[in-house]
Amino acid sequence: xxATPVTTRVPAAVDRLxxxxxxxxGAATAAYQIEGAAAEDGRTPSIWDTFSRTPxxxxxxxxxxxxxxxxxxxRTDVGLMSDLGLQAYRFSLSWPRIQPGGRGPANPAGLxxxxxxxxxxxxxxxxxxxxxxxxxxxxxxxxxGGWTARETAERFGEYAALAADAxxxxxxxxxxxxxxxxxAFLGYGSGVHAPGRTDPAHAxxxxxxxxxAHGRAAAALRATLPDHARIAVSLNLHQVRPLTTxxxxxxxxxxxxxxxxxxxxxxxLSGGYPADLLAxxxxxxxxxxxxxxxxxxxxxxxxxxxxxxxxxPAVVSAPSPGGAAVNxxxxxxxxxxxxxxxxxxxxxPPGDTTDMGWTIDPTGLHDLxxxxxxxxxxxxxxxxxxxxxxxxxxxxxxxxxxxxRIDYLHRHLAAVHRAIADGADVRGYFLWSLLDNFEWAYxxxxxxxxxxxxxATQLRTPKxxxxxxxxxxxxxxxxxx
Length: 481
Ligand code: FCB
Description:
Layout: H1 12-15, E1 16-18, E2 24-28, H2 31-34, H3 47-52, H4 70-84, E3 88-92, H5 95-98, H6 108-123, E4 127-133, H7 139-142, H8 150-167, E5 173-178, H9 180-190, H10 200-224, E6 230-235, E7 240-242, H11 247-269, H12 275-281, H13 287-290, H14 295-299, E8 305-309, E9 314-317, E10 345-347, H15 362-375, E11 381-386, H16 403-421, E12 426-432, E13 451-454, E14 459-462, H17 464-475, E15 477-479
Parallel strand pairs: 2-3, 2-12, 3-4, 4-5, 5-6, 6-8, 7-9, 8-11, 11-12
Antiparallel strand pairs: 1-15, 9-10, 13-14
The structure holds beta-D-fucopyranose.
């Protein structure tokens, strides 16, 4: 009997990791980071215009005045998306463009820009995904208290209705807020983001009012949009790991999970603010007066999809007596973005880091998806941001061979694939970002794009990662690792 032949070829099916049919492949951007045209067609300043003009707040004094000039070049940019084969494009609407000053009627010119953009996308067969708020609060509303004022949540509900009324016939997937943790805790706690306030009580007040704003916007969207439209929110959920299994480290992880994650998922998805968060922060705010009757019910407005933005995990340990807490997660500041848990230590997770200094850890994405699925069964998930900054030095012929970014995307997509195989209901993936852009306090120093932007000429050049991503989209799969 002949010996059984030794198989040397792996069957084709396991050469690649196939995503479920209908898995949505996209890329994401945000208004202030790409649009420019800061003072055109009736747009009023946002807190980021003010912040970026405040000396010392943004690297090199960079501003979003011009950014990628997307406001004038959106047709070119939709062409780039088409070349990539993108199926969906997540962008944000600029509140001060649509509703100058944050109150009153809509600005027709502001709405027109988004109508044209959306029409261009639909003509190219790309599904528009609109985010109502990616951090550009109208400056006029900051002057009446910003997110520390309850009134701002009411204004946001009105703005949501204006946007839905104008675009609801052509945008079928909406997200209310992008990363309210950053808005509240970096904007009002550590102060590394606009408006740059540094008061723990303000940060917690802002968190509640952002939650309420989400609830008001979700209700306004539901009332205005056609039945088939879907409503989501994008959270930068922290994948929190205790440094050791010591009970004190476990408690540090619990605290950061509370003020990093459950401060939002609690009222949005689990019926109210978690008792441990309220206890951890009771000395900072009076939650009984901050949260009014009916607020939690409003925040719990049903959503159809939870967007998760993931870049790196957080490793924490118990406060060390006399030791200064270190926060590697989001820039350095003398003020903590963790009210009530200021003394928790943050450790840089082991492994290679990106140009942001963020450890590359795809396992964190898998674990976050699994934990979120278990905590919120039945709620579809999508990765609404994931990506990496690298120095991206163009070669002499202007090309960018960003194999580090390809590796990052590849390994994170494989982690998403593994989470789906393990039972997580993940419907799509949006690469951050389509274009190099204004990276907040880092200005133009950090490049996250699949497409390189030469800011002097506004020339766009797809990087090697753009071609790699186009291949993944076309095949609905990535190579096995
Ligand atoms: C996220 C933001 C996005 C971008 C990436 C790198 O926190 O939502 O605008 O800055 O980080």
